Amino acid sequence: MTDQYQKRSAPSAERNQGPIGVQLGTLLPEHAHVLEIASGTGQHGAGFTQLRPDIIWQYSDIDPEAMGSQAAYATENPEQLMSPIPVDVMVEDWWQDIADISVIYCANMIHIAPWAAAKGLAQGAGALLSTGGQFILYGPFLLGPDSAQSNLDFDQNLKRRNPAWGVREIQGVENLFKQHGLVLDKTIPMPRDNFLLVFRTL
Ligand SMILES: C[S@@+](CC[C@H](N)C(=O)[O-])C[C@H]1O[C@@H](n2cnc3c(N)ncnc32)[C@H](O)[C@@H]1O
Q: pTM of the full predicted structure?
């Protein structure tokens, strides 16, 4: 892990942390053990654990530099923030060594990764979450003909950077997670044409 203990901050995470926190504050069950996939700078976990002192938050990421930042946040609240674990959702059986998780949270990842990442995420979430478990996905999504122009533009921009990336259709994401026992329970519109999708295990 390079840049260990160097806290980082992303303007987008600073902007969306407040609105997401308002939702998570009430959505998360009491004493939830949350696994965050693709924690990035670690700001979200740091902010949400302040809002909810009853929860435990496990950071994870594929990127060693991001994990360094997460580790730095974790040292400030070691009771609630667990040091990051390496997770690449495109690796087969990535969830094998993880246990006792009641909620999985993932923000802004599945559009900046191949569709195989969404598939791996759905497979792992289905395997890790027992009955009553919750999976929360935040980011931009397409809504067929009702898609926001900003998200259509963003989709084109992403595809120019990498043809395997792209803003995903909510319907496709819903279908994918259903195949792994997770049903879409709430679709919450968020600022700047983002959504918070809340899935529950059957
Ligand atoms: C745009 S950042 C989002 C960070 C944070 N969740 C947020 O909303 O601020 C995308 C994150 O996805 C991670 N990521 C990309 N591919 C991944 C994969 N296959 N498995 C796990 N994490 C991945 C990156 O390392 C990065 O931290």
A: 0.97
